[in-house]
Design brief:
The complex is a heterodimer of chains A (about 180) and B (about 220). Helix content of chain A is about 0%, strand content about 40%. Chain A has about 180 residues and is an all-beta fold. Chain A has a domain of about 90 residues. Chain B is built from seven helices and nine strands, in the order αβαβαβααβαβββαββ. In chain B, strand 2, helix 3 and strand 3 form a beta-alpha-beta unit. With about 220 residues, chain B is α/β, with parallel strands linked by helices. Chain B has a six-stranded mixed β-sheet with strand order 3-2-4-5-9-8. A three-stranded antiparallel β-sheet of chain B has the order 1-7-6, sandwiched between helices. The chains are: A mainly beta (about 180), B alpha/beta (about 220). Chains A and B meet through strand 12 and strand 13 of A and helix 1, helix 2, helix 3 and strand 3 of B. Strand 13 of chain A pairs antiparallel with strand 3 of chain B, so a sheet runs across the interface.
Chain lengths: ~180, ~220
């Protein structure tokens, strides 16, 4: 839905009034607060949801995504980086390769690679990823599952849970035996 | 959001980025922070290392370095239940008498679903009734064979800060303080603790030079 069209488009901003526009808008020439813009740095595409954008429903992308607005429902990025910016507010189940949280998330977050909650970030929900980093000053409430291979974004439907700490441990895949202590 | 967060110069962004990487990886213990050498914590880890994908319940504030430590060491699951924040909330509102009822239902994990519990200093801030309610919950949550690592102050004084404990290694903690609403510490004798954790047994108990008693409880 947010993908850049195959044919190159003019670089002028999209007509303003629509709160969510699928027209590509270069980030530098994008003063409007309500926007969904896409930019490419080097060879990588990054979609950007502006801070006045509110999305309710299912958001799926095949490119990196930065959320500065509000999203409610479900966010799924297979094999891509999701950044919830300082202004971003996400009330959703989140699935991605890597998730960086600088804003607010209420809901469970699953990543196949890494979850990184920055010092201004706030998460209330369960995290599942092989690696989780939580900076000092970050707010977190929930559980953290770091079992190797525990997060699988390809089967998100079976993993959707309410945004509260899970009452029971449910290892999806048995991990390697725990390392012995020295 | 604080006013300082509204404006972020580029230099600050770079500082934040580098600090975040360091903090997330190491829990940012400061050199000036005191260290504590633990003789009991290695045994707590040893209990968990022999359990597959252990589930840990941490009653203190989230510490990124500790999450990473347990994740790399044990590959398990960690529930961060900042009960200390709840205690502070009740203290600020002048509702400490309500803590016992609150803590009796605070933890929602399933019975016998937790392999290890970390409760560092938490009980110092709880009177006998509230401590008993929390201890009963923890006892119920522990799996048979599970372990509880606790530290308990042994000197009566007014507590003016909470302690953020950062695990530096299997036997060394670094502690950092942050402000608390003043409250007299509840000092428990060993027999009080044994009664409070009815259903658990004391596997090891060590009095540290800091007059803190470090105890490892096990559930038979």
């Amino acid at each position: 839905m947010w993908k850049r069209d195959e044919a190159p488009r003019p670089t002028s901003p999209a007509p303003a009034p629509a709160p969510v526009s699928s027209a590509p808008v270069p980030r530098e020439a994008d003063p409007a607060a309500s926007r969904v813009a896409m930019s490419s740095s080097a060879s990588r595409e990054v979609a950007h949801i502006g801070k006045s954008v509110v999305i309710k429903g299912e958001l799926t992308a095949s490119e990196d995504l930065v959320i500065e607005g509000q999203v409610e429902g479900k966010v799924e990025l297979r094999d891509h980086l999701l950044t919830i910016g300082p202004n971003g507010k996400v009330k959703a189940q989140v699935f991605a390769r890597t998730v960086v949280v600088e804003g607010e998330v209420r809901g469970n977050v699953m990543a196949t690679e890494r979850i990184d909650i920055r010092d201004a970030g706030s998460v209330e929900g369960d995290l599942s990823a092989p690696r989780v980093a939580i900076a000092d000053g970050a707010h977190f409430r929930g559980s953290i599952d770091m079992q190797r291979g525990g997060a699988d974004v390809k089967t998100p439907a079976s993993s959707i849970k309410p945004a509260v700490p899970a009452p029971t441990p449910a290892p999806a895949i048995a991990p390697a035996p725990s390392p012995l202590l020295k | 959001m604080t006013p300082g967060q509204l404006v972020r110069p580029w230099t600050d962004l770079f500082k934040r980025a580098s600090r975040t990487v360091d903090a997330a990886s190491a829990g940012t213990p400061q050199p000036a922070d005191p260290t504590v050498t633990s003789r009991v914590f290695p045994k707590f880890l040893d209990v968990l290392a022999h359990r597959e994908a252990p589930t840990i319940l941490d009653l203190g504030p989230v510490v990124g370095g500790n999450i990473e430590f347990f994740g790399e060491r044990l590959c398990g699951k960690i529930h961060v239940e900042d009960v200390v924040a709840d205690i502070e909330d009740h203290s600020r509102r002048g509702e400490r008498p309500a803590l016992a009822a609150f803590l009796a239902t605070r933890l929602r994990q399933a019975p016998a679903s937790v392999d290890g519990v970390l409760c560092w200093d938490t009980f110092d801030f709880l009177d006998m009734a509230a401590g008993g309610a929390l201890a009963a919950s923890l006892t119920r949550l522990l799996k048979p064979g599970g372990a509880l690592h606790g530290s308990f102050g042994t000197t009566a004084l007014e507590l003016r800060h909470y302690t953020r404990t950062v695990v530096e290694s299997a036997s060394v903690f670094r502690t950092r303080h942050y402000p608390a609403t003043p409250v007299p510490r509840t000092v428990r004798l060993t027999r009080d603790m044994i009664r409070m954790f009815d259903g658990l047994v004391v596997a090891e108990s060590v009095l540290l030079k800091s007059n803190t008693r470090e105890t490892l409880f096990r559930k038979p």
